[in-house]
Amino acid sequence: MFDGNDSRNITPPLLKCTDVPQFTALKFAASTFRNDPKLHLRHLLSDSNRCLSLMAVHVTTQEFEQGQNNTTVDTTTPVLLPGPLRTKSSGAQRRIILDFSRQHVTGETMELLFDLADRMGLTERMNEMRSGYNINFTERTAVMHHVLRMPRGYDFQSRHPRGNSILGDVHSVLDRIERFAEERRRGNLRGCTGKEIRNIVCIGIGGSFAGPQAVYEALRGDAFAAEAAAKGGRTIRFVANVDPVDFDLNTKDLSPEETLIIVTSKSFNTPETLQNSSMARKWLMKHLCTKSDVDNEDLRDLQIIKKHFCAVTLDINAAESFGIHKDNIFPMWDWVGGRFSVWSAAGMLPLSLHFSFDVMKSFLAGGHDIDEHFFDAPLGGNIPVLFGLLGVWNSTFMGYHTRALLPYSHALRKFPSLVQKFDMESNGKRVTAAGMPLSFQAGEIDFGEAGSNGQHSFYQLLHQGRTVPADFIGFMESQSSIDEEYTTNDTGSLDGWDGEVNISGHDKLMSNFFAQPDALAYGKSLSDLVQEDVPENLRQHKVFPGNRPSSSILMTKLDAFAVGQLLAIYEHRTAVQGFIWGINSFDQFGTEIGKVLAKGVRAQLNASRRRGASVQGFNSSSGFLLEAYLSHRR
Q1: DSSP 8-state class, residue 7
Q2: Listing from the earlier edge strand, what are the strands of the sheet with 72-75?
């Protein structure tokens, strides 16, 4: 089994992006945008040719979705663009439209960004990733989560000398997941008391928690996924926090006899995950030992774990030492980072148990569709590349260090936190991949909320406070048919909307998707308020400066395939920004320092609780807080 550590080591790039002339040219361009009122977005948006040139369309045919061919269409030029944009969809193809005309860029700016990408070897870095070179330079591993999405029979051998073996391992695990999931969905495999498994508790943290949870929430409202879940799905819960309240709230209404625990930990030594796994073990033992027909306590323990525990891990031996039966252990690989692990058994196992393997196979296909687009499409029409370039532009040159992700879909309410997790963990770095200090701050602060909830939360700041570049995500079709069931022809305004406008709930949602980017871009001037006869004492309070940049993604519909597409777009965007900044986006040493210090705190708490030891070895501030904590209820 390939572990990503063979002879495919390469030297990290030594060139710093700040040392190339394109960097200086872009700094000058950014200064011009900040200081020239003629470059306000309200003026730039009046140029229809510019607007059309700052769009990209990715079209996926039905045949590609079904695995029959690799036919996709990518367009960006003004001559070709209006066709894919304006032709009514026949239902035989799905589209992703990226509109970045509301960004502080012109064609010339984009050319400079493409020149910077070329100078920093972006295409070469992408090809190294695609071919499985060890681009995680500090840990000397490959970064190949895209391989998890490759269909059976895909030609990976031409890019990697062990391509057939690697892809064979991937599909061997997928085959096991399919058999395991479908057996349980049919009720053929049961718990230790003979009752059918009806509940799944997923224990993990980081990507092994955030990824599966976000995809689960995204698919709950999809008709096909919901139907599959209704036929054989299970109650599914996610436990991550070491706070015991998390475990308690997620299990207190479940029957242990009908519950399967899935422990996901790449190393199988993640403290939070092991703590929750031990708690789950005790929870099962407490309730099931009295119902077991085995007298020996150790044998009862093993019997319960065999029937009620699964593991997803790189360390098979550690999982077996915990007591999990080898048939219930699903491997991960060293070349899959935890934050990208939803495509592995970490996500595929629990979500296939709930939604079916067929649904989740479509999720993988959507991700693979974007992989092919990312690695093969010209940079000028490459949606993840365009996103990455715009992120570099806004963060490094325009000085906007925060980014908002605004999906106009309730189903995607967990998506911003997932992107926040893998983007900030990947690109929050202070040195280049070669270990040289950066002269600028890499990475952005990501946050977001599903529309239109966010409009009643932080949009006030977006419109009149700080400038925060935003990504708007919308869909042409609603996930739900409830509009068709309850939308009437009444013309009253009891619903709080315009009485003369009778449109569906999805159209009302999407009206905000279309309006908010323009509101951010255009704003409202003092002269506008004078013409509207706004009282003089309120005019300054109601001025909206506008000129707030945003991008819009409009997709056909949100189903498993589209969720895969969307997630892969944002994963690749993160990689693009890291490649251009010249950093290693695939290690995460910043997550370790606090955990190391916490070991000392745990030792102190143990000594104080058990032996009454005084607090020692901490600074005065931490010592004071520890004393206050320990003295409570002493």
Answers
A1: S
A2: 72-75, 55-61, 93-99, 550-555, 470-475, 402-407, 445-448
Q: How far apart are CA 586 and CA 253, in angstroms?
A: 39
- For residue 295, the model assigns a pLDDT of 55
Q: How far apart are CA 425 and CA 630, in angstroms?
A: 33
Q: Is the pTM of this model over 0.90?
A: yes
- Entry field: residues in the chain: 634
| Bond into 395 cis (ω within 30) | no
Q: Smallest Cα–Cα separation from 577: which of 374, 388, 424, 450?
A: 388
Burial class of residue 115 in the structure, from the number of CB atoms within 10 Å of its CB (0-12 exposed, 13-18 middle, 19+ buried): middle
Helix (H, G, I), strand (E, B) or coil at 521: helix
> For residue 64, is it left (φ>0), alpha (ψ between -120 and 50) or beta?
alpha
The C-alpha atoms of residue 570 and residue 258 are separated, in whole angstroms, by 37
Reply yes or no on whether the pLDDT at 293 is more than 60: no
299: three-class secondary structure by DSSP: helix
- Taking the C-alpha atoms of residue 341 and residue 266, their distance in angstroms, rounded to an integer, is 9
Q: What backbone torsions phi and psi does residue 77 show, to the nearest 5 degrees?
A: -75, 145
| Residues 525, 42 contacting (CB under 8 angstroms) | no
Q: What are residue 406's DSSP bridge partners? A: 472
Average pLDDT over residues 314-343: 96
State yes or no: pLDDT of 503 exceeds 70: yes
Residue carrying the six token digits 């770095």 = 429
- With tokens 């570099």, the residue in question is 392
Residues 6+ apart with CB under 8 A from 108: 29
Nearest to 419 by CA among 211, 163, 116, 134: 211
Render pLDDT for 135-186 as a digit per residue (tens, 0 to 9).
999 999 999 999 999 999 999 999 999 999 999 999 999 999 999 999 999 8
Q: What pLDDT does 120 receive?
A: 98
Q: What are phi and psi of 162, to 5 degrees?
A: -120, 30
Quote the DSSP letter at residue 237.
E
Of 187-191, 291-295, 575-579, 613-617, the poorest mean pLDDT is in: 291-295
Task: Output 155-164 pairs: Cβ under 8 A, ≥24 positions apart.
Answer: 159/130, 159/131, 159/132, 160/8, 160/131, 160/132, 162/2, 162/6, 163/132
| Three-class DSSP category at 406 | strand
Percentages of the chain per state (helix, strand, coil), in multiples of 5: 55, 10, 35
DSSP state of 574: H
DSSP, residue by residue, 556-594: S--SHHHHHHHHHHHHHHHHHHHHHHT--TT--GGGTHH
**Lowest model confidence (mean pLDDT) among 254-268, 276-290, 573-587:** 276-290
Asked whether residue 600 carries a pLDDT value surpassing 80, the answer given is yes
Tell me what the mean pLDDT of segment 374-393 comes to: 98
Looking at residue 62, its pLDDT comes to: 78
Catalytic residues: 425, 456, 595
Task: State the residue for tokens 């976000």.
Answer: 214
d(CA 124, CA 145): 18
Cβ count within 10 A of residue 264: 32
Q: Using the structure block, give the residue that is written with the tokens 């807080």.
A: 625
Three-state DSSP state, 58: strand
Q: Which residue has the tokens 């070897």?
A: 121
Q: At a CB cut-off of 8 Å and minimum separation 6, what does 53 contact? A: 76, 77, 78, 107
Q: Are strands 93-99 and 550-555 parallel, antiparallel or unpaired?
A: antiparallel
